[in-house]
Amino acid sequence: MNIFQYDAAFQQLKEEIEPQLFQNFEVLHMSDLQQMYVGKLRIQGKPNPHYRSEKLKARILKAYPGRVSFWHPKYHSETELVYCNEVPKSQNVESAVNVSNEDNMNVKEGNNTHDNYVYHAAKNV
């Protein structure tokens, strides 16, 4: 196994995701990152379609100690999420309110979704 190819593919992945994570504060799907990494491995001449996301997660944690976190959504059939720990708390609240306002248009009468989002965002602050 040529470790250089894995490292080169990971370096390419980092260059692509760093602006998304640390400048735009985007939340990324681990499954998307895994697919991107597998594609970069293929380009490096080291195809490995079964590369485990746990290995990629370990690489990400090692590359960005204390800067990123992972979150398993409520339903385990959904992919794990990756996000920056450095997001300002005010931005978290604003994002939660914006999402809840968008969802509020689809809320059935008697559903407290909007209040639920605001509560959880405030709890995180």
Please outline the helices and strands:
Elements: H1 3-23, E1 28-29, H2 30-43, H3 53-63, E2 68-71, E3 81-84, H4 89-104, H5 113-124
Antiparallel strand pairs: 1-3, 2-3
Key structural traits:
single chain, 125 residues, mainly alpha, 5 helices, 59% helix, 8% strand, globular
Tally the helices: 5
Shape: globular
Average pLDDT, all residues = 81
The helical percent reads: 55-70%
Instruction: Count structural domains.
Output: 2
Summarize the helix and strand pattern as letters.
HEHHEEHH
Low-confidence stretches: none
Number of strands: 3
- The strands making up the biggest β-sheet line up spatially as 1-3-2
Description:
The mean pLDDT is 81. The protein has helices at residues 3-23, 30-43, 53-63, 89-104, 113-124, and strands at 28-29, 68-71, 81-84. It has a 3-stranded antiparallel sheet with strand order 1-3-2. The chain has 5 helices and 3 strands, in the order H-E-H-H-E-E-H-H. The termini are far apart. Helix 1 (3-23) packs across helix 2 (30-43) and helix 4 runs antiparallel to helix 5.
